[in-house]
Amino acid sequence: MGGLRWGVDRGVVEVDGEVDAAAAQIFAAALDVCNDDTVIAALDLTRVSFFSAAGVRCFVDCGWTTEAHPLIIASPAVRRVLTLCDLDFLLERHGWTGGSVWPTRVA
């Protein structure tokens, strides 16, 4: 598997690469920034090409299944895994049901 990178740009945490067991700590760090920084409006996962159960575990461990979180903009790979794990409600919580296209308004 390839690497995983993330950064913050104008209130959006952008993740790029593959989320697997080897990259789980890096992904969890990105989720923690979303949890801790009140200016973060969205988590952009549109450039995530591979998403494993390790990424799902990060969402659970970081409290995203029970607490409010920023908008998630997901690639088809992320959407597929979250749907299979019955966690697609994470994507719809803000009313955004699109795939890898930015919504016109991030709220």
Please give the structural blueprint:
Layout (H helix, E strand, L loop, with lengths): L3 E6 L2 E8 L4 H13 L5 E10 L1 H9 L9 E4 L1 H9 L4 H4 L15
Parallel strand pairs: 2-3, 3-4
Antiparallel strand pairs: 1-2
Helix pairs in contact: 1-2
Question: What does this 3D model show about the protein?
Answer:
The chain has a 4-stranded mixed β-sheet. The chain starts with a strand and ends in a 15-residue tail after the last helix. It has helices at 24-36, 53-61, 76-84, 89-92, and strands at 4-9, 12-19, 42-51, 71-74. The radius of gyration is 12 Å and the shape is globular. 33% of the residues lie in helices and 26% in strands. α1 links the parallel β2 (12-19) and β3. With 107 residues, the chain is α/β, with parallel strands linked by helices.
Number of helices: 4
Beta-strand share of residues: 25-35%
Alpha-beta classification: alpha/beta
Oligomer: single chain
Q: What is the molecular shape?
A: globular
Mean pLDDT: 84
Rg computed from alpha carbons, rounded to a whole number of angstroms: 12 Å
- Summarize the biggest pleated sheet: 4 strands, mixed
Distance between the termini: 33 Å
Helix content bin:
25-40%
Strand sequence of the main sheet, in spatial order?
Answer: 1-2-3-4
| H/E element order | EEHEHEHH
Number of strands: 4
Low-confidence region ranges: 96-107
